[in-house]
């Protein structure tokens, strides 16, 4: 076998070998799996939107122009429940605000030019962010983002159209379980990333907050309330660490006064020995 030569920069050590990139086929497979699974849940939105009284044009325009499933479902769900349109729109807007935070992170990961960012921003949602951030380098992140976004956008809009047209034939979407496809896929992507105790506690507390507030608050608000789980867990973790540090410094035999010699004899002996050496 031929030997591989490491290139050493002038005056520097050899650079570590680059991490092996993820195969394009694996990235495309994962992206298509997410895009197809979540894209099919557009049926639920189309049926729910038609049942809420929105026209076919309004339903399709929401999917084409808004394209953020949770916010769309929150909007039509609130309207179907008889909510005020302005309140429903505000809840959908607050729920969709999380995409702005995804965009801040993806901007550095994807590295698109300024002219391309407005077009890419339309595809910044939960699923595209999860697939892109799971990749080891920029090239595969762009590939995963593009394939997921394109697949999901096309399928979501097609199934929205079919769902709105066939709302009467499909009947109750709860019986089909289509509204659970998106959260199920996102949970499957998120669960392997919960590797620390703090992350698991944060996720568990967020679930508890949603379950407690869901029967009490308007649609979309429980999701916003669940975001309080992160600062709550981090605050508790910070207090716990400070308590440990305080206990460690005040434990007998570990403080500076306990470890310091009572007289200068030890210091004198050490200095004298060093001088002789």
UniProtKB/TrEMBL annotation:
Chief location of this protein within or outside the cell: membrane
Comp. bias regions, Basic and acidic residues: 239-250
Subcellular location: Cell membrane
Keyword Transmembrane helix: yes
UniProt-listed GO biological process terms: L-valine transmembrane transport
InterPro entries: Brnchd-chn_aa_trnsp_permease (IPR011606)
Bilayer topology annotation: Multi-pass membrane protein
Entry keywords, A to Z: Cell membrane, Membrane, Transmembrane, Transmembrane helix, Transport
Similarity comment: family membership: Belongs to the AzlC family.
Residues that span the membrane, as ranges: 31-54, 143-170, 203-236
Chain intervals for the UniProt region annotation (Disordered): 1-20, 239-277
Record's keyword annotation contains Cytoplasm: no
A Pfam family hit: AzlC
Protein name as annotated: Branched-chain amino acid ABC transporter permease
Compositional bias segments (type: Low complexity): 9-20
């Amino acid at each position: 076998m031929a030997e591989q030569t490491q290139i050493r920069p002038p005056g520097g050590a050899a650079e570590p070998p680059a991490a092996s990139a993820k195969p394009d086929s694996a990235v495309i497979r994962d992206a298509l799996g997410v895009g197809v699974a979540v894209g099919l849940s557009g049926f639920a939105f189309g049926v729910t939107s038609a049942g809420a009284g929105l026209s076919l044009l309004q339903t399709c325009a929401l999917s084409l122009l808004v394209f953020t499933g949770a916010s769309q479902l929150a909007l039509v769900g609130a309207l179907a429940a008889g909510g005020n349109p302005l309140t429903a729109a505000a809840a959908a807007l607050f729920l969709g605000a999380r995409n702005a935070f995804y965009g801040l992170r993806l901007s550095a990961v994807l590295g698109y030019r300024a002219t391309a960012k407005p077009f890419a921003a339309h595809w910044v949602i939960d699923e595209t962010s999860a697939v892109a951030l799971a990749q080891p380098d920029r090239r595969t992140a762009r590939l995963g983002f593009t394939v997921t976004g394109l697949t999901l956008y096309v399928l979501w809009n097609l199934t929205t159209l079919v769902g709105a047209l066939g709302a009467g034939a499909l009947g109750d979407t709860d019986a089909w379980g289509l509204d659970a496809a998106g959260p199920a896929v996102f949970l499957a992507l998120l669960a392997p990333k919960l590797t620390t105790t703090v992350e698991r506690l944060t996720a568990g507390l967020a679930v508890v907050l949603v379950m407690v507030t869901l029967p009490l608050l308007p649609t979309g608000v429980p999701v916003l309330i669940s975001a309080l789980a992160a600062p709550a867990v981090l605050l508790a973790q910070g207090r716990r660490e400070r308590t440990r540090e305080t206990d460690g410094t005040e434990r007998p035999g570990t403080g500076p006064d306990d470890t310091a010699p009572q007289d200068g004899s030890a210091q004198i002996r050490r200095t004298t020995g060093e001088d002789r050496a």
